[in-house]
Design goal:
The complex is a heterodimer. Chain A is α+β, with helices and mostly antiparallel strands. Helices cover 31% and strands 23% of the residues of chain A. The termini of chain A are far apart. The model of chain B has no long low-confidence stretch (mean pLDDT 85). The chains are: A alpha+beta, B mainly alpha.
């Protein structure tokens, strides 16, 4: 044991000698950065297997991959049911959040109580019962043309909740918008996001932003009038304009585009098109309300 | 030996802090420090993952072929992070929603690779575990300090609660928008490094 080994903690350079060098020749780190390598049981790796041989390397890599793959599959399979249940629960909570019922203790129970119907919009704006299982991806449903509308009843009043999807700055954003029975006044909204910047775009998930929506109107004539504009630019008297989030113009624009794109598809429902066309015999979903507005 | 272990734990907390001295993990420090809560979540998750992967790599260290050691380390870290996030999704859904953004950031955090390569490959499991905890906490401390300043002056809140009273705003006080912008994290980290270097003269470069 004539020489000791010292390793530079910064760059990994190994110095052999009786003491650590004044300065690391590789990265100029000072002496204090060096630590002595104490070889416990001196090179235990050399016990027959040559860990540097090609065969060993390839076999090692293969075994490693197989073990990790099995581990991941096992974990994913065993936990799948619980995860799906959590996602369903979370989606229901989001829908209820749009109805201003946040942080509920019993989501599934409240959902069953409040949401009367998970319906699909027909081309003429009528609602038809949705037959499938509860869905958690409304982006793919929207792309398929399945326009979901949740019919809810809060304090004896009927509300409609529409799921929305769009793009923010870094990733997807989504939300739910709840409308009053007149299909025009916003009752409440909920937004969330996958990867917007915390403190900036991430603020769309906060109630401070979402509380600006209730009371605004959605439909302006035959178009979607509801708009998110740059912070401070919203006309105080406007029934359609909502202030965006400070310092998050792109995310705010994303919310605006999402609202516009998704709700445009719902225009037949929002404007009660079937009543105007007069094709509404069974019309209890469509024309039974005070149609004088 | 016991002394060495406690050094492995204590050193990275301040004197040999991974962020301040080795300037590792800066990228994620930018992303998550606009608010305190994500900073703490990120700090703790990195601590847990560094400690666990350090232990695993340390146990495997004598069998790992030298030429593919970095890949092996990466596979271990990625698998570990994925498993932890899957388990959270099943049993602590709220936490996993919080964490979802950071999973990718944890895997690519240089502190992990740095510690695996520099420490776990040469040391036993227990020392590696302490080293991982120490480095993770050292990283977390810096995140928390930076996030504290940024959230307080950038949004006037701490943990989302309003701290700066309303009357300040009425008197004309404004939140500092620069604070929530990413460059401010670098500037603050720079200030901390400045202080750190001033206190530890032997680290000063010429």
């Amino acid at each position: 044991m004539a020489t000791k080994k010292f390793k530079c903690k910064v760059c990994g350079y190994v110095h052999e000698g009786d003491k650590a060098p004044e300065q690391c020749p590789m990265c100029q780190a000072p002496q204090s950065e060096f630590e002595e390598i104490v070889e416990e049981g001196a090179a235990p790796a050399k016990k027959g297997l040559n860990t540097n041989s090609n065969v060993y390397t390839i076999v090692y890599a293969a075994i490693m991959v197989v073990i990790v793959a099995f581990l991941l599959v096992f974990v994913s399979q065993t936990l799948k049911d619980r995860q799906t249940a959590n996602v369903i629960n979370d989606t229901k909570q989001q829908i209820l959040s749009a109805l201003n019922m946040r942080d509920l203790p019993d989501v599934a129970g409240t959902y069953a109580e409040v949401i009367k119907n998970d319906a699909l919009m027909q081309p003429n704006g009528k609602l038809a019962e949705y037959e499938g299982d509860f869905n958690t991806s409304y982006k793919s449903e929207f792309d398929k043309g399945n326009l979901h509308i949740f019919v809810a009843e809060v304090n004896g009043e009927r509300k409609f909740v529409i799921p929305m999807n769009g793009l923010g700055l870094w990733g997807t954003i989504w939300g739910y918008i709840a409308l009053n029975e007149d299909r025009n006044t916003v009752y409440g909204v909920y937004f969330s996001h996958s990867s917007e910047t915390p403190g900036l775009g991430g603020e769309i998930a906060g109630t401070k932003f979402q509380d600006r929506f209730p009371g605004k109107l959605v439909v302006n004539g035959e178009e979607v009038g509801l708009k998110v504009v740059k912070y401070g630019k919203a006309d105080k008297g406007s029934q359609f304009e909502v202030d965006g989030v400070t310092g998050a113009t792109i995310t705010s624009t994303g919310v605006n585009t999402m609202i516009n794109k998704v709700l445009s598809a719902y225009i037949p429902f929002l404007t009660k098109q079937c009543c105007k066309e007069g094709g509404c015999e069974e019309g209890e979903e469509c024309c039974d309300e005070n149609s004088n507005d | 030996m016991a002394n060495k272990n406690s050094e492995a734990f204590k050193q990275p907390l301040w004197v040999n802090n991974p962020v301040l001295v080795q300037i590792l993990g800066i990228c994620s420090a930018l992303a998550v420090t606009a608010q305190l809560k994500p900073a703490i979540v990120m700090g703790l998750s990195v601590t847990v993952i560094v400690a666990m992967s350090n232990v695993i790599i340390s146990l495997l260290r004598n069998t790992i072929p030298n030429r593919i050691r970095i890949i092996i380390q990466l596979v271990v870290v990625a698998a570990l992070v994925t498993i932890v996030s899957e388990i959270l999704k099943a049993f602590a859904y709220d936490v996993s929603v919080q964490l979802s953004v950071y999973v990718g950031l944890i895997i690519t955090n240089c502190i992990l690779m740095g510690r695996l390569e520099a420490f776990a490959m040469q040391n036993g499991p227990w020392a590696s575990f302490l080293d991982g905890i120490g480095n993770g906490l050292g990283y977390a401390v810096i995140l928390v300090v930076v996030a504290f300043v940024r959230e307080l002056f950038g949004s006037g809140t701490l943990f989302g609660f309003q701290v700066i009273p309303q009357c300040f705003y009425e008197a004309g006080y404004l939140n500092n928008g620069l604070m929530i912008m990413p460059p401010m994290a670098l500037i603050l980290a720079g200030c901390i490094i400045w202080y750190h270097r001033a206190k530890n003269k032997d680290l000063q470069e010429n």
